From TrEMBL:
GO terms for biological process: carotene catabolic process. This is Lignostilbene-alpha,beta-dioxygenase. GO terms for molecular function: carotenoid dioxygenase activity; metal ion binding. InterPro entries: Carotenoid_Oase. Binds 1 Fe(2+) ion per subunit. Its cofactor is Fe(2+). Pfam families: RPE65. It comes from Hyalangium minutum. Fe cation binds at H196, H244, H307, H490. Belongs to the carotenoid oxygenase family. Keywords: Dioxygenase, Iron, Metal-binding, Oxidoreductase.
Length: 505
């Protein structure tokens, strides 16, 4: 393996930092490196695996302003593993957000984190809550050959070269609204994008949403295959909500109104404390992707959903699949410390996340819903070529009790109702694990599952490749990374074939 250090960042977290999300698997990375000819320590890299595994992570460089850190405050850093002709190369770079650059210049934190009051921020900023730093650390996807990173509380979408990970700036869709008569709706300057935009690989469109404290509280938008804003329409909600994900089918986008919100009484005093109000029920808003017609709302059992796996149309029905939470805000027990309560809030077993299917009947307006599995899993990925179309295969992660860490993989066949599982060894934690179709793949999930793992026992990381059809066998290739990488949230796969289409432009 040949490694070159590109840049070392000075970390000012202090030696006395024992926060559970700044230590162990969450110890931040502060060095950017390039590495080629990575060592394959077991198995062999398949020659028909060609593309990039891209992983976004959270890496704080500075102490939180008032010392109340949350893992989602960390600055976005993307790690990329490129597979080509049986070889692998790696690089990692911070997303050079406006917030990170300003804090580097100031030499300290300028924006309050999630657990701190926005009033502690020294500057105006981003985020549905307002006055936050847009860390662009939550999600990553590839649209039109370019990687886009986004932030869960809404911010700019940052554009990155998928190979070099160089930050190219932010998207400027508001500027496209002028002089473009085909646009339905106006994307105002300063409007933001939530994490989890979706790419429809069959049409090349990018679908997105955002949310805020201002009426109508949510918007849905479409960027066309040419990269231009095509639609931006309101999805009016009864008040501010805290959505995280959306879904789409061939003709519709599916937004949501879950009873998860900032406590309205506290919000009136500019305090932001999430409350869950199950008595309000859940609603799903179905809107045509062409922007015509109004939002159709479907009622459903109360819950909160962090992630949907997919949605599709079947006859009169729209079928949506995702992770229903049994306890969106886990109960705080008597005598429990604040840090334990905080750990529980990120523990999928406490949230009781189970794969669920909703069926919305467009003729009758009725909703039917049912669990697909009893096991607690989350962070679903599908073969992205089937986004918005009927799928069978879902890869999901199992959670380590008491932590926001993934200790295993589950591969579902949701049509047959079967699954395969793989459990990582003790102390080894994986990343979100997308399906990587083999070059010239013939069917759904014909290929591999790719993930990064960190081994706390020897402070190291690997990339592991699984056969998508046989994950229970364990990894078929293990590739050593040049350093241990921090845990994070989302990852994606993009094939060399897809990137080549856009390079020719
Ligand atoms: Fe997410």
């Amino acid at each position: 393996m040949k490694v070159s250090v590109v840049r070392r960042y000075e970390s000012k977290l202090g030696d006395s930092d024992f926060h559970p999300y700044r230590t162990g698997a969450w110890t931040p990375n502060t060095v950017e490196v390039d590495a080629t000819d990575l060592d394959v320590i077991a198995g062999e890299i398949p020659r028909d695996l060609a593309g990039l595994y891209l992983r976004n992570t959270e890496n704080p460089l500075f102490e939180a302003i008032t010392g109340r850190y949350h893992p989602f405050d960390g600055d976005g850093m993307v790690h990329a593993l490129r597979f080509q002709e049986g070889r692998a190369e790696y690089r990692n770079r911070f997303v050079k957000t406006a917030g990170l650059l300003a804090e580097l210049e100031a030499g300290g934190a300028l924006w309050a984190g999630i657990l701190e009051s926005p009033e502690a921020s020294q500057r105006d900023g981003w985020g549905a809550r307002t006055r936050m730093k847009d860390a662009s650390s939550t999600d990553i996807l590839v649209h039109r050959g370019e990687a886009l990173t986004t932030f869960y509380q809404c911010g700019d979408a940052y554009r990155l070269d998928p190979y070099t990970l160089e930050t190219r700036g932010t998207v400027h869709w508001s500027e496209q609204t002028q002089g473009n008569p085909g646009v339905r709706g106006v994307f105002p300057k300063g409007a933001t994008v939530s994490a989890h935009p979706k790419v429809d690989e069959q049409t090349g469109e990018l679908l997105f949403f955002n949310y805020s404290k201002e009426a109508p509280f949510m918007h849905f938008g479409v960027i066309n295959a040419e990269g231009k804003l095509a639609r931006y329409v309101p999805v009016p909600l009864p008040g501010p909500r805290l959505p995280h994900d959306m879904a789409f089918t061939e003709n519709y986008a599916i937004l949501n109104d879950f009873p998860m919100m900032w406590d309205p009484e506290r919000l009136a005093k500019n305090q932001h404390r999430p409350v869950y109000r199950p008595e309000l029920g859940s609603r799903f808003g179905i809107v045509r992707r062409d922007g015509t017609g109004s939002v159709r709302w479907f009622e459903a059992s109360p819950t909160y959903v962090l992630h949907f796996s997919n949605a599709y149309e079947e006859g009169d029905e729209i079928i949506l699949e995702g992770y229903h939470q049994g306890a969106p805000i886990p109960k705080r027990l008597e005598g429990e410390t604040a840090i334990d309560a905080f750990r529980k809030s990120l523990d999928m077993r406490e949230l009781q996340t189970r794969l669920h299917r909703w069926r919305f009947n467009l003729s009758t307006g009725q909703t039917k819903e049912a669990f697909l599995d009893d096991e607690v899993t989350e962070f679903p990925t599908i073969d992205n070529r089937l986004g918005g179309r009927k799928h069978r295969k879902v890869i999901a992660m199992t959670g380590e009790p008491g932590h926001f860490l993934f200790n295993g993989l589950v591969a579902y066949d949701v049509e047959r109702g079967t699954k395969q599982s793989y459990r990582f060894p003790e102390g080894v934690f994986a990343s979100e694990s997308p399906i990587a179709p083999r070059t010239g793949a013939r069917g759904e999930a014909d290929g591999y599952v790719v993930t990064f793992v960190s081994d706390l026992g020897n402070d190291s990381s690997e990339c592991q490749v699984f056969d998508a059809g046989e994950i229970a066998r364990g990894p078929i290739a293990r590739i050593r990374l040049p350093h241990r990488i921090s845990s994070g949230t989302h990852a994606t796969w993009v094939s060399e074939e897809d990137l080549a289409k856009h390079r020719a432009r």
